[in-house]
Amino acid sequence: MTEFSETTEEYFVPDEKNKLEKGVLYLVATPIGNLSDVSDRCRKVLSGVDFVAAEDTRNSGLFLSRLGIKRPLVSYHEHNKASVGPRITERLKNGENCALISDAGTPAISDPGEDLVRLCAEDGLRVVPVPGCCAAVCALTVSALPTGRFVFEGFLPSTPRERRERLASVANEERTVILYEAPHRLRRTLDELLEVCGAERPLSLCRELTKLNEDVRRGTVGSTVEYYNVNEPRGEYVLVLGGKSPASEHFWDNMTVSDHVDYYIGQGMSQKDAIKAAAHDRGVPKNEVYAEIVKNK
Ligand code: SAM
Questions:
Q1: How large is the average pLDDT for residues 69-91?
Q2: What is the dihedral of CA 71, 76, 82, 84, to 10 degrees?
Q3: pTM of the prediction?
Q4: Is 30 near ligand 1, meaning CB less than 6 Å away?
Q5: For ligand 1, is residue 33 a contact (CB within 6 Å)?
């Protein structure tokens, strides 16, 4: 029996559920900055598994030693996942169990854990979640923006073309959008959001959640850009962007089809991609956009 609500039947079975099984990958969420957010189950699983796979073994070694836990660590990250992933699943098939942790938060959310879970699924291996912090969910819940329908976009792509396309889709999104961003790229991303979403779009900027300098700035894209024009971005950020109001205008509403295509060309797209992007925005076939351009030439 546990200390949880006595009215919820499910809370009476976890002792059985909490026994560690062999051949299982445990996805163990860890704190995003506040060690007190470590759960009892997180400690138990990390103490009991045969080995821990971690993105950064130095950080994770420190984390485990703060908890007084000593387990063998295996490095598993973006640059070695192709070779290390199969080695981990091989060990699971041979009857070991493993806890996967990321640098912070929930593994497989914006980190290579996603690939290891897929490998396990392909090999018929069990993957068990040990839930806890996720920066995206923490930010959404304190954003004061609608939480009923939301999309998680993680980090915007870095290649210019993909980035432009993603920004255009973010601008047209009616649900609340959650984005991750590094401090040194925050200003650029805010400027881009200003361009595609306009100054009035609501934005809650959540910084250093669960840490000493936790800060939630609820405003608009415009007010946030102004703030960071004079203040240096520092720490970790989640951007929670209000969805486009269904009644609000698209940034291209007052543009002709040709102007709309020219806008994307001006952003660096080829004519072909610009036609594709404009067609996507307008929800019409590409050849319709192309025909319109030819007609106006
Ligand atoms: N797996 C993690 C999770 O569950 O949230 C996310 C990992 S992702 C590589 C790291 C990003 O998460 C950071 O760049 C930042 O955008 C966000 N993040 C992590 N910790 C945060 C915190 N304490 N406050 C605000 N954002 C945070």
A1: 97
A2: -20
A3: 0.82
A4: no
A5: yes
